[in-house]
Amino acid sequence: MYGFIHATDIKTTKYDIVVKNKEVKEKKLKIVLIADTHFGYSVGYKMAEKMVNRINKENPDIVLIAGDIFDNSYDSLDKPDRISKAFKNIKSKYGTYAVFGNHDVKEKLFAGFSIGSSKKAFRDNRMANMLKEANIKILDDEVEKIEDFYIVGRKDYSKAGDGTSNRLSIDKLIKDVDTNKFVIVLEHEPRDLDNISKKKADLHVAGHTHAGQFFPLTIGTAIIWDNDYGYKKYNNMHSIVTSGVGVYGPNMRVGTDSEVVIINVKFK
Q1: Contact by Cβ (8 Å): 203, 19
Q2: Using CA atoms in the order 81, 60, 95, 75, what is the torsion angle rounded to 10 degrees?
């Protein structure tokens, strides 16, 4: 019962980072990061509205969504119009940008866990259409330049949404990016962080791990992932992994929080 109630209590987690020697006009940037909303069987429109209210209170410059927006089935959404409206109500200076995750595909679920082959995982077009109608820009192995910074958005590592696990390498994605500017890499899974840092990315943001979500998985994620939750630095790159807003599998959180992450960037 505690785990069920705790999962609906959204916390705010803040990180302050300093980025040096970048060609930027602004002295600071306020980023809101969310991930793993898992809208579907367990997470509904009320959580979406609560999340957006929390985001808007922060008055962010930009909002980033690091995948697993849906929980495999679009048809499982309760009142998708209310969820879409909530997304559309997100307010920020530069807009909202998103990538998809391994659950943003059509797959069968067993006890809340997805089952099936990544080679046969296709995305329901209604997922992308909902986000586009809510003015959310999807970066599917794409780069977006905004003012003095770049967002490099990557497809999911295991499920690209087109029946494959194919995605562009970080080298190909970042080759035309001016790394004298501020460079953010946005993806679902926090993989290959040391290598990405060597490509002169300044900030890497991700989700996926849920920080384990509940004990004893909270122990396992720390073993599997080099940065399974929170902040870590790789060379000159800042890595931030969020525990997410929603849940996968059992509808509960024990030992972790549902969170909205605030990243205050200062440039020197």
Answers
A1: yes
A2: -30
**Helix, coil or strand: residue 12:** strand
CA distances from 204 to 5, 10, 71, 120 (A): 31, 23, 24, 28
Which tokens hold the place of 95? 């807009």
List the structure tokens of 54: 């929390």
Rounded to the nearest integer, the mean pLDDT of the chain is 94
Largest Cα separation within the chain, whole Å, is 51
**DSSP per-residue letters across 142-196:** EEEEETTEEEEE---SS--SBSS-----HHHHHTTS-TTSEEEEE-SS--SHHHH
- 119 phi, psi to nearest 5 deg: -70, -15
Q: Say if residue 216 is preceded by a cis peptide, omega within 30 of 0.
A: yes
Binned at pLDDT 50, 70 and 90, residue 165 comes out as confident
Q: What is the pLDDT of residues 102-112, one digit of tens each?
A: 999 987 766 55
- Whether residue 184 contacts residue 201, with contact meaning beta carbons closer than 8 Å, is answered with yes
Q: Are strands 182-186 and 203-206 parallel, antiparallel or unpaired?
A: parallel
Cα–Cα distance, 7 to 37 (Å, whole number) = 11
Do 97 and 153 meet the contact criterion of CB atoms below 8 Å apart? Answer: yes
Place of tokens 């499920």: 159
Could you tell me if 153 and 99 are in contact, meaning their C-beta atoms sit under 8 angstroms apart? yes
Rounded to an integer, the average pLDDT of 22-51 is 96
Amino acid at 79: K
